[in-house]
Amino acid sequence: MTRMTVDRDVLPVALLALAKSQMRVEHNRDDVLITEQLRAAIVGVERRCSININPAQFAFEGCDITATGRLPVNNVSAIVSLFSGGVDVSSNYGIKQDELGGNAHAYLVGPTLNSNDAVLVVDVGMQTVDAIDPAITSAVLRITAAYYENRETFAPVFVDDFLGELIAIWRPAV
What we know:
The protein has about 170 residues and is α+β, with helices and mostly antiparallel strands. It has helices at about 10-25, 30-50, 135-150, 165-170, and strands at about 1-5, 55-60, 70-75, 75-85, 85-90, 95, 105-110, 120-125.
């Protein structure tokens, strides 16, 4: 699996007003700082929870993806292209995504793909803030607030300090 692109700008900018409202910041002096802290919080939650939040594109080459059917990414929005022997066969495949916006698994649906020359390119992540699960948004906002509150101290802020929110992401209520 190779990450081809990732957009770490769209979601922090879209969440800025909400984060400022939660933190009761009424001025614009710290907008750049808060945006950077939002970016760090989103990346921290992505890494800790193994979830794709930021819009990104991954390529899978030469592997039997459909042996299990499960893709090693989640929040799949599109199959960009699927080639086997140079022929575009994307129309033969689809994605079954359980609970879009959270950490649920994505599955490739279609005929078995086990050719060594096959390439699957998928788009993952959330294109808008509204698509993000509320538990994820809550965790990102609380982590951002902690970064902002501790911006001038030596007190460390760890993503694991927010395990309540993170557990809700890992194990959503059924």
